[in-house]
Amino acid sequence: MNKAAQDLRILLWDIDGTLMRSNRRDAFKDYTIPMLEGVFGTAGRLAEMSVSGMTDLQIVAEALRDEGFTHEHIRERAHDLRERYMLEMERAVSRGGEGLFYTLPGVREVLEATAQHTRYRNALLTGNIEPAAHLKMRLVGLSEFFQLPGAFGDDSHDRRDLPALARERINRQLQFDLEPAQFIVIGDTPNDIDCARHYGARAVAVATGRMYTPQDLLAHEPDALLPDLTDLSLVMRTFDQL
User: Which are the contacts of 225, defined by CB distance < 8 A and separation ≥ 6?
Assistant: First the structure.
């Protein structure tokens, strides 16, 4: 591998709570509950669940765990699930207008800086199903920064599987053989840290989510913890050290 490839770092970004937020807590249930009811006939226990850091397939499995639906049943309905999910999400967007989601402070500036830097490439690693992730990026005007393939919530029930999938896809597109340690997972939950640790990637925690305090995140031993993404110099120094 040449030096340029050895120096490269792939920034794997979580979406919700890291890059952007919904305008109110649990707004995702506005479209996830009718999706589950439309595909499976019930939303199970979703209304009472806290789902921060979970993949969409994991959310579905946990919501329906007492309704007799297995992972295999959910996989068999994956196509219907994606289609109904996007239908209900687009309905929610049309009702909520452009204000349904908003970009968190500092995000655009960090993405612009990393996009212009030869050491960094940006990609998504998110619990959202792939079409929902891309729709969210379009709605908040961030699509231009994510031209590499990533890994998504319809790839696996287990978020720990996602970094390996992202690496495989990115290596194939770039025609490199990047090592796990060249990938940096950036997210706001312990699951983001843990999936990086499981794979051997680096982990940068950002304390901008609604569920976890900086102390909660530090307990999972990220490589770095940022209060938010507003201090561009601090963010870039943090990435440069990894």
Answer: 204, 205, 206, 207, 214, 217, 218
